[in-house]
Batch of 2 targets.
Target 1
Amino acid sequence: MVPLTHYLGLSLLLFALGIVGVLVRRNLLTVLMSIELMLNAVNLNLMAFSRQLGDLTGQIFAVFVIAVAAGEAAIGLAIIISLYRLKNSVNLDDAAEMKG
Amino acid sequence: MSAALVLFWFLAALVVVGAVGVVVMRQPVHSALFLLLSLVAVAGLFVLAHGEFLAAVQILVYAGGIMVLFLFTIMLVNVRRQEKERFIHRQAGVAILVGLALYAVLAGLLLGEVRTMAAHDLGSAADPVRLASTVVDGVTVAGNSQAVGWSLYREYFLPFEIASVFLLVGMIGAVVLGKRTMEKVD
């Protein structure tokens, strides 16, 4: 039997790695992938608590998180493609018009 | 150490290796493959947490759908020619510090929680049968997929429908954004 805290510790590490990925990378695609990592960390947490409490609500929540992740990936990648058409680059620093 | 625990550590190692690979690999396509490794290992952890249906959904949606989208986008935007550029941001040092600080704060919280749980003896998990059975018209039906489906269509029907509308909007949005004529609009 795996203790709850093992799951929580792993998901914590995964979330921190996702945050570092978002902040460190300059490529928009890998930033989006790091966001997927963070969503996975959240799902892992939900599943762990669902198992711990014997309650299906966590699994239902994870279904919705996966649905939102799919929508987010589709829209995000479409935005990346149209940005690439506009700027000919997928580098975050090339899309800094909003910087004051 | 029980078999489940050995499996957990093995899958956890794969998840972490995949996540580190996503962050440190120079080529986006390598990052994508490491992300795939991480996602599949997370699906294995779902099985370990008695979420067999979610594990299947994880493989189908993430490994089957989202990864294909990522790989197609990588192919379309042809990022290979930027090989000479630096791929790590100048703020990397600060970013890693922020990540470490977040990790330290949350790990501290978790360790405090572990102490409380040990004090109150809350460590053991609930009976897994509760996640893998559902009562339909007085008859107990076994299976995690049945249980999730029952709950989804009975108790969470409105959120389920909202999610389907959300996915429709996302699909239309992706098509509109991806259309080549967008450039002429503005």
Target 2
Amino acid sequence: MTCDKFCELISEGQPSNPNAQQHLQTCDGCRAMIASLTPSDAAAPNVDRIQAAIAKNMRPVRPLPSNLTLMLLFSAVFFAFALTAAMPVGYFGFRALSSFQKMAVYSGIAGCALSSSALLVSQMIPGSKRVLNPALVLPSEIMSLIVITLGMFHSYTTERFVLRGIGCLRLGTICAFGCGALAWLLLRKGFFTSPPVAGLIAGSFAGFAGFAVLALHCPILNVPHILVWHLGVLAIAVPVALIIALVGKRYHRVHG
Amino acid sequence: MTGAGELETLMQRYQQADTTAAATLVNELSPQMFHFFLGQVRDRSRAEDLLQDFWLRIHNARHTYRPPEPVLPWLYAIARRVRIDQYRRSRAIAEHEMQTEVLPERPESAPSSRSTLDMRELLKTLPPAQREVILMLKVSGLTLEEVALATGSSVGSVKQKAHRAYEKLRKLFGASR
């Protein structure tokens, strides 16, 4: 067996493989490398102080619920918030859509809400299995909304494009912040191994909520309007959430 | 050392405010966590600080452990966070510190001879991501799957990092068959 093959075997977690063991007996270099990788005999520090500090602040805690329960909680927050926030301003958008458009648009939003919820949950539990990769899922979610918009609606010129658009952007952003704040209350129960990633996901979750409120409220079914002013909510919510996460992390680092 | 499944039971009892279980966990796991930190910071007092910070965070985040899931990936995911925070904190401090005198240059600590290489010297030659994987696999004895969970990556990526690290280390020892 070559040293290359030996390295391959041990990196695959097979150090006790008979071939690897045989190689170790004959190869001085590999044997020295493995011997050097055994921990030094540096004694661990005295842990009495740590034990005393823990004992002083001991109280029972309840483990977080299962991933599915947490995901359903986030999704419930999303849908309840979108429906409630659109109520006072009116469900004009819902009424303006055909049945087919309703199915396409709202199932797209529901998909984004569920996958963002799953991503949020995976950020809360350290060492948990990552089924979804945020780097793939977040762009796919946004792309799916763009494709649905392009496929379901037409482009036509509208009067007061900016003026009417600003109203939508304002409403969507306010709703995104509201939903983001609610999601944060749930999120803070977890432990973030990567606050910036958690911030990005929370921002997109909030942005989708703002988009959902606009999909229920806004009756303008014009592609440029939706792409610029409705999806624009995400373009605001994601960077803002990321900045909040980074500032929070820095504050935590400085002030403990 | 505590056997498989016992750590999970101890952790469960710790969540129920069992002080003895907490003390046993700290006793059992501190040596390997200390070596994990020591392998990365190469300074005993900093490793001790990291160990304290680590247990403080474990205590505050103990509700995020869900029995009967394996404890080690959960612990190491938090340990990584502690290490990263410490690294950024020390970097921020270094940026604000002004050097007032020219310090004597430190001699390059190149690995001198095969026989004198110790673990920390060896690990120093590896990039941080590979060093972390080797520490978890070889020093802490985690499985590939546990390392993947702790680092939030795939088993394939862990294997690749480990392979690259072993290749690099092997070259240091001149073994090239």
